[in-house]
Design goal:
By secondary structure, the protein is mostly helical. It has helices spanning about 20-35, 40-45, 50-55, 60-70, 70-85, 100-125, 130-140, 150-180, 190-220, 235-260, and strands spanning about 90-95, 95-100.
Length: about 260
């Protein structure tokens, strides 16, 4: 089975059974902890808190690699630029570039933040059913309805986006194979080489969106007001424990930054 970006992997682990609201809030607190980490070493230490959750969820290593592989070049560029262009105490000189100790710290800090945030987001997507994730997001946004926030519409947009990601990826692969069979070349990053893929993909996406809108209108869909839910969300002891650990991680990192600086 090929595991795509953002794909849900059914399972019976404790991470899978957590309330989606707890996982969303936990991801937020985890991000706060990563942003509060003052040094690269502390950011890697904080980020490693996601490793036990990945092991507990039973996710295959191939899935982890597929989620992080597109970021390898991007992360390498960020790290090199931070190390080479940040002024400070010079550690080594490579041609016209000076590698500084401060640059190394900032490079590791940026690397850890992006790496572990993507890893945690991938864990959330892999262990949470898209419909449950949308329900959880709607419940969290519901208090904002008092000030005009369209919680139901935002949750619907999230659900549709998650549902269409695998479909669009399959469509892009099908179009690419068809265009290659007709002699098209996708080598390089030139715009003209990507047009045979981008234009048909946009046309297909608009057609699917139009068909979905017509189907929803034919079924008299009128948003979330007055609708019932097949599944009722409720916090359990494991959810409170999960949030307690995530909150302690965020609070501890913030205290360390305020106490010792960075």
């Amino acid at each position: 089975m090929v595991l795509e970006l953002g794909q849900y992997i059914p399972g019976k682990s404790g991470i899978h059974h957590l309330d989606p609201r707890a996982k969303l809030l936990g991801l937020f607190l985890y991000g706060v902890a990563l942003l509060a980490a003052p040094t690269g070493a502390s950011a890697f230490l904080v980020g490693s808190a996601a490793v036990p959750a990945i092991i507990l969820a039973g996710l295959p290593l191939s899935f982890i690699w597929r989620q992080l592989r597109p970021l390898v070049i991007f992360l390498a560029i960020i790290f090199i630029f931070q190390v080479a262009l940040t002024p400070g105490e010079v550690m080594a000189t490579i041609g016209p570039l000076q590698l500084t100790r401060q640059g190394l710290n900032y490079g590791l800090l940026a690397l850890a933040r992006v790496f572990f945030l993507v890893l945690a987001a991938s864990l959330l997507m892999a262990t949470t059913d898209p419909l449950a994730l949308a329900d959880g997001l709607e419940r969290l946004l519901r208090p904002g309805q008092r000030v005009g926030l369209p919680a139901e519409e935002l949750a619907l947009m999230l659900t549709l986006a998650l549902r269409f990601v695998p479909t669009l990826l399959e469509e892009a692969e099908r179009i690419m194979r068809a265009q290659v069979a007709r002699g098209a070349s996708f080598r390089g990053l030139q715009v003209k080489n990507l047009m045979p893929l981008v234009i048909p993909l946009f046309i297909s996406a608009f057609r699917r969106a139009e068909g979905l809108a017509e189907a929803m209108e034919a079924r008299a869909y009128r948003g979330g007001e007055g609708r019932t839910r097949m599944r009722q969300l409720s916090f359990q002891a494991a959810d409170f424990l999960f949030l307690l650990l995530a909150g302690a991680l965020a609070a501890g990192t913030a205290y360390y930054r305020l106490r010792f600086g960075g």
